[in-house]
Amino acid sequence: MNIKDFSALLKAKAAELNDFRHRKLPVLVGRTAKDHFQENFRQGGFVDGSLHPWQEAQRRKKGGKRASTKYGTLLSGRNHLFSSIKYIPGDSSVTVTNDVEYAALHNNGGQITTHPQVTLKMRKFAWAQYYQAAGITKRMKAGGKKRKAIEEKLPEEALKWKRLALTTKETLDVKATIPQRQFIGESRELNQKIENLIETNITNILNK
After folding, report:
1. Contact (CB, 8 A) for 181 and 73
2. pLDDT score at 67
3. Whole-number Cα distances in Å, 87 to 46, 100, 115, 167
């Protein structure tokens, strides 16, 4: 190879590296980041140095036969948060985002206040929860000795549902603290994946 050929080769490699940096790398990094962040959902926590498990969802702690109990924390039948992670490649840059309105609340944690309307359906549900928490069955007659004995020593959980069923309010003020369940953010493992990706691709370009 003479100097002229070598110079042409250098220019070709430089052009290929430049194209890789501006056009191909953002797509590769975005795809890698998306896969990494979605893996957090499968593992049930955020991976940065090690796995930082999420606080378990209340529906899973309670158990039961409802369909929702079989899904992991932050997962559902539709996997809305999971599937809404996307990447937007640009010129030498990429943005990884999730535009679900409650994504930031779960990722960062925080407090929310809602004002649900007290409906007939809500009252029926509250009564059902009351009977379950109190241990009152359909076979127990109203005013009967067994039911009276139960109603004299109701657990706090049952009293809570009874108050809701009998409330005169038309709307409720419900405050809730959402624990942080981070799934997007800075991660040492992700940084290492990106470094390996860059090194592998640059080596392949130079060795072609």
Report:
1. yes
2. 45
3. 19, 14, 34, 47
pLDDT in tens, 138-180: 888 888 888 989 999 999 999 999 999 999 999 999 999 999 9
Question: Which residues have CB under 8 Å from 160's CB, separation 6+?
Answer: 133
Q: Which helix (H) or strand (E) holds 134?
A: helix 120-134
Helix or strand (DSSP H, E) at 16: helix 3-19
Query: What residue type is 103 in one-letter code?
Result: A
**Domain spans in the chain, listed from the N-terminal domain onward:** 3-108+180-207, 116-172
Confidence (pTM): 0.73
Distance in angstroms (rounded) separating the CA atoms of residues 47 and 137: 46
Token pair of 175, please?
């405050």
